[in-house]
Design goal:
- This protein is mainly α and about 260 residues long.
- The protein has 15 helices and two strands.
- A two-stranded antiparallel sheet has the order 1-2.
- About 25% of the residues are buried.
Length: about 260
């Protein structure tokens, strides 16, 4: 008899939820990758523990399918609203319906301010703090685009966000180029990650052979060329923006005031 493994339950649940509404699971997958790299960089965890943390990080917003279904189009508002309802539903799901009930409180605490989290006696609170950082990085980077500055969260260090977690994220970003690889995989699939890494190494090598002035000029030129795909995307999404701007936000049949 072949037993159902935790991984199979996780993949099945994730795929079903993506059919219902794709964004939370795509967002969760990006967050999970960042958290995995951060915890791997920090060290101290076995690979099987990291696998369980990835499962939880991927589905950290699973409660939003119950509480926020009609209000997830504006991700910044979703991130900054009162998050207690969807974290409670997420906690209940992992506590009673998942193969990792001991990790359920990670979901409960992943929006909690770092100062409050420090007062709680829970062995995995650091994982919750890392998910909080990765989630904010993903949401704000996608909402702000080329205007996003990851250092904007530095002012929250020690109060709302973990100083150690932020430092670990910055190290991982410098080491693995997290955002670049995540976007490449999102656009072209998992196999493209190796191609991206190879291209990055080639450009790093070429950069060492050029003069500083030429490197800066090329950097400025490529940054300016980003306007072209951004403008195309804005034009392509115009109809969606108009549609959603005239559609009232609903939660349980009520309009969002």
């Amino acid at each position: 008899m072949e037993y159902i493994k935790s991984k199979d339950i996780y993949l099945l649940t994730r795929d079903i939820l993506k059919l219902i509404y794709k964004w939370p699971m795509d967002h969760g997958s990006r967050v999970a990758y960042m958290v995995y790299k951060m915890l791997q960089e920090k060290g101290g965890y076995e690979e099987f523990e990291l696998a369980d943390f990835v499962m939880v990080a991927t589905m950290h917003d699973i409660g939003a399918y119950k509480t926020e279904r009609g209000r997830m189009n504006d991700v910044l508002r979703f991130e900054n609203r009162d998050t207690r309802a969807h974290t409670i539903y997420g906690y209940l799901f992992f506590k009673y319906l998942s193969p990792v009930p001991d990790l359920a409180k990670i979901i409960m605490y992943h929006h909690m301010d770092y100062e409050q989290l420090q007062k709680i006696d829970y062995p995995y609170k650091e994982v919750a703090a890392y998910i909080n950082i990765a989630e904010k990085m993903d949401i704000y980077s996608r909402a702000k685009g080329s205007q996003f500055d990851m250092k904007m969260f530095q002012k929250l260090s020690g109060t709302k966000l973990s100083p150690r977690g932020l430092e670990c994220f910055y190290q991982c970003q410098a080491k693995y180029d997290l955002f670049g690889k995540i976007n490449m995989v999102y656009l072209f699939g998992k196999k493209s990650a190796n191609v991206y890494t190879l291209l990055a190494l080639i450009f790093i090598f070429l950069g060492t052979t050029m003069s500083n002035d030429l490197v800066w000029e090329l950097s400025d030129m490529l940054n300016q060329l980003m306007v072209i795909p951004n403008a195309i995307a804005l034009l392509a999404l115009t109809s969606h923006v108009v549609k959603h701007s005239h559609t009232p936000d609903r939660l349980s049949g009520r309009e969002n005031g």
